[in-house]
Amino acid sequence: MSILVVSLAIVSFLLPGCAGTRPHPLPFAQAEANRSNERGVEAARRGDKAAAVSAFEKAYRGYAAVEHYPGMVTALLNIARVSTNQGDFAAARKALAKARYMIDFVPSLAAEFSFEQAKLLLRDGKAAEALPWGERALTLADEAARGRTTNLVADIACRLGNRERAISLAVTGLELSKRAKDRQETANAQRLLAELALEGGEMPMAASRFHEALSLDKELAASSKIAIDLEGLARVAEKAGERKKAVDFWERAANASLAGADPASATASLARIAEIHEQEGDFASAAKIRTLIADITKNSQETPAK
Amino acid sequence: MTGKEDSRFRHLGRKIILFVVMALMIIAGVLILIGRDQDLFTKKYELRFTVDKGTGFSKGMPVKLSGFRIGRVSSISLNEAAKVDVVLQINRRYQKWIRGDSRAKLLKEGLVGDMIVDLSVGSPTAPLLNDQSTLAFEKTMGLDELASEVADGVKPVLIQLRDIIEYVNDPKGDLKQSIRNINLLSAHLDEIRNHADELLTTGRDAVSSSTKRVDRVLIEADNRLKEAGPVLARVDRISANLEQRLPSLLDKTDGTVGNLLELSKEATATSSLIMPRVPMLMDKVESAIDQSNLLLNGVSGMWPIRNAVPAPVQDRLVPGDSHE
C-alpha cells in the first residue's frame, strides 16, 4: 500500500503538464499596475482612503502606459468609488468623465460605470437624470451586482416620489441581496424599506426594518450607517410620540457619529435632542446640549479632518 | 526969446549923435551876441548821411557830440532812391573828433526830450571827415519797434504767467488741494494737540511707573547679588576642587580616547576586509532570490499545486454600495 502511494506521488510529480496548460505570465508593466490596483483595493477595505486613491492613480498610469482599457476603466471606477465615500465628489466626477471616453471599449464594465454615474447624479440631487443611468445599469448588471443595482434604482424612484415602484424595487433588491448573501445590500434594502414605511406612517414596520438594518450594519461595523439607522429609529419614535425613546436614539446616533469622526451628523442629532427638550420646557437641558454642540463645532473646526 | 540958451540944449547935436552911436553899438553888440550864440561867425563844414525814413528828423535839429552841441541839421531832402539825405552843419573846431568811424544816431534826449542827432567820437587813427563827407548812420529803434520787440519778449512771459495763474486757480489742482488739506489739517490741529497732550500725559505716567518698576528691579537685583555672594564662594571652592582633580580626569579621558582610536582603527581594518566582499555577497543574495522566485513560479505552475494557488487577480473593483 505504501509503495502504491509513493508511486502515485512520483507519477503526479512527473506529469506536471497533465491537468492543463500553464497560464502565461503577465507583462511586467501590467503586472505592476495590477499589484497597485490590488493594493488600492486592500487600502480601501482597511479604510485608508488616501492610500487607496494614490494606489489607484498609480495603477491607472501603469495601465495607461500599455493602453490597457479594462485596467484604466477599473482604476477610474475605483477612484470614483473611493472618492465618493470620502466625500470628494469633484474627484469622482472627474474620474467618471475620463472613464466615459473609454467605456465603449470595455463593455464588461458598462454596468458598473452606469451604476456609479447614477449614484453620483443622485448625490447631486438630479434624480431625474440618474434614473436612465440606473435603469441601464440594471439592464447590464450581472447576478452579483443585481441586488445592489436594484436597491439604487429603488432609491432613485423614492427620490422621484414614485413610492409604489420604490417599494417594489426595494423588495426585489432585498430578495436578490439575501440570495447573494450580500449583507451590506441587504441592510441598504432594509433601510430603504424602513424609510418608505416611515413615510407611509407604518411605524412598527419602519422600526422593524431599521432594527434589521442596524443589526446588519453592526455586523459590518459600518459606523456611518449605524448612525443613520439610529437616526431613523429616533424619527420613528418621535412620530410615534415616544419622546424619551427618541432622545435615547438621537443620543446613540450622536455618539456613533462622533466615534465615526462625523461631527456634523453628531451635532445635527444633538440639535434635535435640544429641540425636544425645548418643546418639553426643559430649557436648562436644552442649553447644556447647545453648549455641547458649540464645543463639538469648535473642536471640529480647530482639528482638521483626516 | 531970451538972450541966454538953456544949458540942457547946449551941445545937443553931439549928445544926440552920442546917443545914436551908443544905441547902435548896443544893437550891434546884441546882434553879435546873438550871432555868436547862433554860431553865425564860426566856420562850419557839412557832413551828410542817408536814412530810409526821415521820421524824427527836422531842420535845425541840434547835432551833439558827447552831449555838447556842435552843429545843426541844415537840410533834409528826398533823393532819387526815395531815401532821405540829411545834411549836418558842424563847427569846424569840432572836426578833429569826427572821424571815419564816427556814427550818427537819432536820439531822444531823456524820456520826453527833443530829438537830436548824436555823433560818436571817432578813434584818432581813423581819417578825418572833410567837408561834404558822408557819415555812417546807425539806425536806432523807434518807439514802435521798441514796443514791438518788448511785446515779443513779454508775450511768452505773459502766456506762462497765464498758465501759472490757471494752475494756481484750478480748484482741482495740486495747489488748491494742498491748501484745502492744510486747512483741514490746521482745523484738526487742536484735536491733534489735545491728543498729543493726552499721549504726553499717558507717556509721562508710563515713564514714571516704569521708573518705579526699574527702581524695584534694581533693589531686587541688589538683594540677589548679595545672596549670590555665598554661592560664588561655593563656586570658587568647587572650581578649586575641580582644578585639583581635572588633570587626573583628563588623563583618564586621554586613555579612553586612545582606546576609541584603537577601536576605530580595528573597525576600519575590519570594514576594509568586509566591504570589498559586500557587492559579491549582494550578487549572491540577489541570485538566490531570483532562483527562489523561479523555483516558486515553477512550483506554483505545477499540477496540482497551481490549482491551490489563486490566479493573480486582474482589474478588481472596490465593492459598490447602493447607499448614497
Q: Which chains have the largest interface?
A: A-B, 46 and 21 residues
Largest sheet of chain B: 8 strands, mixed
How far is the first residue's CA from the last residue's CA of chain B? 183 Å
User: Structural class from helices and strands of chain B?
Assistant: alpha/beta
Total beta strands of chain A:
0
Count the helices of chain A. How many? Answer: 15
Q: Strand order of the main beta sheet of chain B, please?
A: 7-1-4-3-2-6-5-8
Q: What are the segments of chain B in which pLDDT stays under 50 over at least 5 consecutive residues? A: none
Order of helices and strands of chain A: HHHHHHHHHHHHHHH
Describe the structure.
- The complex is a heterodimer of chains A (306) and B (324).
- Chain A is globular.
- Chain A is mainly α.
- Chain A contains 15 helices and no strands.
- In chain A, helix 7 runs antiparallel to helix 8 and helix 13 packs antiparallel against helix 14.
- By secondary structure, chain B is of the alpha/beta class.
- Among the domains of chain B are: 33 residues; 98 residues, Elongation Factor Tu (Ef-tu), domain 3 (Beta Barrel); 71 residues.
- Helix content of chain B is 56%, strand content 15%.
- Chain B has 5 helices and 8 strands, in the order H-E-E-E-E-E-E-E-E-H-H-H-H.
- Chain B has an 8-stranded mixed sheet, with no helix packed on it.
Defining traits:
heterodimer; A: 306 residues; mainly alpha; 15 helices; 81% helix; globular; B: 324 residues; alpha/beta; Elongation Factor Tu (Ef-tu), domain 3; eight-stranded mixed sheet; 8 strands; 56% helix; 15% strand; elongated
Summarize this, please?
Chain A has 306 residues and is an all-alpha fold. In chain A, 81% of the residues lie in helices and 0% in strands.
